[in-house]
Amino acid sequence: MSPPPPATPPAARPYRGAVVIGGTHGLGRALALGARERGLLTVAYGRTAASLDDTEDLLPRFLDLCDPHSVRTASVDVPRPCYVLWVAGAFLKKPLVETTEYEVEQLTRLLFTGPVLFLRRLLAGAEGPVHLITIASSSSWKRREQESLYCGLKAAQATFVRNLVPEMIAAHPENRVTLVNPGGLAVPDFHTGLALDFGAMMDPGRVAEIVWDIATAQRQAFTEVQILRSRAPGSEGTPEVSYGARAPQPPEEPAPTAAPHAPHH
Ligand SMILES: NC(=O)c1ccc[n+]([C@@H]2O[C@H](COP(=O)([O-])OP(=O)(O)OC[C@H]3O[C@@H](n4cnc5c(N)ncnc54)[C@H](OP(=O)(O)O)[C@@H]3O)[C@@H](O)[C@H]2O)c1
Fold first, then answer.
1. Ligand 1 near 115 CB (within 6 A)
2. Which CATH number characterizes residue 133's domain?
3. What is the total count of domains within the chain?
4. Is residue 251 part of a domain?
5. Which residue range(s) make up the domain with 93?
6. Residue 3 pLDDT more than 90?
7. Against a cut of 0.85, is the pTM above it?
8. How far does residue 7's CA lie from ligand 1's centre (Å)?
9. Residue 12 belongs to a domain
10. For the chain, what is the mean pLDDT?
11. Is 140 a pocket residue for ligand 1 (Cβ < 6 Å)?
12. Any atom of ligand 1 within 6 Å of the Cβ of 24
């Protein structure tokens, strides 16, 4: 008897390619490798694209989202029709008054202006359908401290993408948009300098699989999904998927629930 055929990931038709903005490390790299597994010609953009491992069969492209010249001139000659994944990012935890003008400018370029301008070029060249997959963050709606710039830019990314949907549908009826808000990922490079328990955070490879499963099964024009880590004892860090947008949490710490009064005697 011949062995069973290897399990094939869901077909990615009608798409020929995938373009990962920030496909060189962390979640972006895991998403790029997932695209390859699905038979897509995969372009990985990033500043360190030249040092990608040849055996992974990704098409490396230099792009520095903080450099307006690079954003204007990096090649957008990509395999089409394609998935476009907006993943690139970096974290910043600092009170605003301690944040330098340079840091504000660079993070805004990296998380918002750079990808928006680059996306504008990628979408302008599209003939067939495009499926845009955006990695925002649960920080776009969660209460955080000393992260106002990061959270504000992630919320801008999410709102920008939701409002891009009508014009994308007008441009091509088969265009699709997936907005993903992940919680904490076990990517130590992203959280440089912070002492975190990475064992209780989500594995980027597992999250990438979930994102591809959702995107390849998506029929409607737009899907927003939260992929949050379980905090339940024994399954800390397991991804939990739920659909739809979340209302922003209020900025103040919730008041502690009053302890029950001791009975008077
Ligand atoms: N890690 C988390 O806990 C977490 C949680 C929720 C959401 N997210 C979001 O997930 C995304 C990926 O994060 P990650 O954890 O995978 O981080 P990561 O491992 O640090 O990867 C960041 C990616 O962004 C690219 N990038 C950084 N600066 C760039 C620049 N100037 N120009 C072009 N590309 C640049 C990097 O490529 P090069 O270094 O090659 O330039 C790399 O591929 C980010 O948008 C982040 O906000 C992360």
1. no
2. 3.40.50.720
3. 1
4. no
5. 17-243
6. no
7. yes
8. 30
9. no
10. 92
11. no
12. yes
